Amino acid sequence: MGLWARLTRIFRASTGAALDKMENPELVLQQTIRDMRDRVPELNNSVAQVMATERLLAKNKDNLEKQVVDLDSKIKASVKMGRDDIATAYIGQLQQAQIDLERTNVQHEHAQVASKQALKARDNYVLNMKKRTAEAMQLISAAKQAKLQEQLAQTMETFNIGDDASTFNEMREKIDRRVAAAEAKLQLGSSSVDSQMQDIEREAMDIQLHDKLLEYKQSMGLLGQGSGNATGKQIGAGTNGQKSEEDILN
User: Which of 7-11, 77-81, 90-94, 126-130 has the lowest mean pLDDT?
Assistant: First the structure.
């Protein structure tokens, strides 16, 4: 091995050892937690932009649908009045509006999928952040406990077995109390209630999205005649029941 290679190896070994001594695991973990939390607002902003695009396309879709209906009425009125020239002009506008509406429908569907994916990614990130935070807190607690044990080991080196027995017991009791307190705080901090609430909120959101999808499908006639009739019967039954109660009260 050449002289330069040996010097390089020695320099790298010395630098690595110095960095290991300078690096505080507790501080590194705390900074990592802060970095993860700092990304949440940026992630929320990205999700909001995706959802804003979806809502804008939905609004454009509604406007185009109204425009198609309005142009259809104008075409019929022009034909009744014998103004074929005006009717022809409106037909051209109607065809363009129908093309724009079809393209907007496709874009809106893609935006809906993108919004769902963005929300899911945001929720997964938050859940993962909470999991990593709990793990980091456990590691920080272990690091503190290790530091206490190191201090205890150094203290024990100065103890005299006979004369300092009471001091040793006092130190051990103090350290045990600190460790127990740290473990209790960690247990309270790592409760799974927040995680369960997140799961419930995400499930509720999925149910709302599923119901909204069913409304779209029903309005587009994709659920079949049977589903529409069943829903109508249920609504009708509820209305009749309400009228009967009013008649009884009257």
Answer: 7-11
Which helix (DSSP H) or strand (DSSP E) does residue 100 occupy?
helix 84-157
pLDDT in tens, 18-37: 555 556 777 877 888 888 88
- Contacts of residue 119, defined as CB under 8 A and 6 or more positions apart, other chains included, come to 47, 51, 205
How does pLDDT run across 195-247, given as a tens digit for each residue? 667 778 888 888 998 888 888 888 888 876 554 444 444 434 444 444 444 44
The answer to whether residue 54 sits within a structural domain is yes
Give CA–CA dist 179/169, Å, rounded.
Answer: 15
Q: Is the dihedral of CA 135, 137, 141, 144 positive or negative?
A: positive
User: In which domain, by residue range, is 58 found?
Assistant: 24-116
The structural domain count of the chain equals 2
Do 111 and 52 sit in the same domain of this protein?
yes
Of the candidates 157, 57, 54, the residue with the CA atom closest to the CA atom of residue 111? 54
User: DSSP letter at 158?
Assistant: T
HSE at residue 145, side-chain half, CA atoms within 13 A, is 15
* Residues 52 and 88 reside in one and the same domain: yes
**42 in any annotated domain:** yes
User: Residue 57 contacts by C-beta under 8 Å, 6 or more apart in sequence?
Assistant: 104, 107, 108, 111
